[in-house]
Design goal:
two-stranded antiparallel sheet; 240 residues; Fumarate Reductase Iron-sulfur Protein, Chain B, domain 2
Length: 240
């Protein structure tokens, strides 16, 4: 343990209703941002609301803005993000704030549904399980995005979402791309129709923030580029 003190500014809420609270927090070796938030709630202000679960980077529920960057707070060491002896923590942007650092994830998941990013069964449970070629190009493309844990870091990082609330966002579109390449998913036409419409993949400006900030090193930007190609192919095939 060190004797240093961290100046921690917590943005509680968003927009015009945002209020900043400043706390002096003891600095420890190997301290994470989530440790800091927990210390504040346990020792300085028990009314502080935030969300976390696993603490080991498996659930994604502790994502917050840290010095203006979306991060998993449980896997972000304070020493890596300090500005001098100061740090600023806020709720994920692009999502409604419920209270303090806790955001409403409903709009995020509503867009998954809007993108048809849900499994469309190609067989009933009574039928034999069909074999999948793990080395096929489509399966490799599908596998590239399956480690998404719905943390919404990419959604918070996306400037297109900020400027266009109807944009489906990188996580939903990446999931749609995964299912489009899944041999066991029977929703190809529905997916292509959903992601090519208003708010779909063609709204993406390919800035790459989603890929740059994904804590699981996924590449939503490439997945969205794949959707763009497939929607154009589908358009030409239909002669439109």
């Amino acid at each position: 343990m060190t004797t240093n003190i961290l100046k921690v500014t917590i943005d509680r809420g968003a927009g015009a209703s945002s209020v900043q609270s400043v706390f002096n927090v003891p600095a420890y070796d190997n301290q994470t941002v989530l440790d800091v938030v927990s210390w504040v709630q346990q020792n300085a202000d028990q009314t502080l609301s935030y969300r976390f679960a696993c603490r080991v980077g498996m659930c994604g529920s502790c994502a917050m803005m840290v010095n203006g960057v979306p991060r998993w707070t449980c896997r972000t060491h304070v020493s890596k993000v300090l500005n001098g002896h100061e740090i600023e923590i806020g709720p994920l942007r692009n999502l409604p704030v419920i209270k303090d650092l806790a955001v409403d994830m409903d709009p995020f998941f509503d867009k998954w549904v809007a993108a048809e990013a849900v499994h469309h069964p190609s067989a009933s449970r009574k039928e034999p399980i069909a074999a999948v070629d793990e080395n096929s190009k489509a399966r490799v493309a599908a596998n590239a995005g399956i480690e998404c844990i719905n943390c919404a870091v990419c959604y918070a990082a996306c400037d297109t979402v900020t400027g266009n609330p109807d944009y489906l966002g990188p996580a939903a579109l990446q999931r749609a791309w995964t299912l489009l390449n899944d041999a066991k998913d029977d929703g190809r036409l529905a997916i292509l129709e959903s992601v090519s419409g208003a708010g779909g993949c063609h709204n993406c400006h390919s800035m790459g923030s989603c890929t740059a900030y994904c804590p699981n090193d996924l590449d939503p930007m490439s997945a969205i580029a794949g959707l763009k190609r497939e929607t154009f192919k589908s358009l030409f095939k239909r002669g439109l």
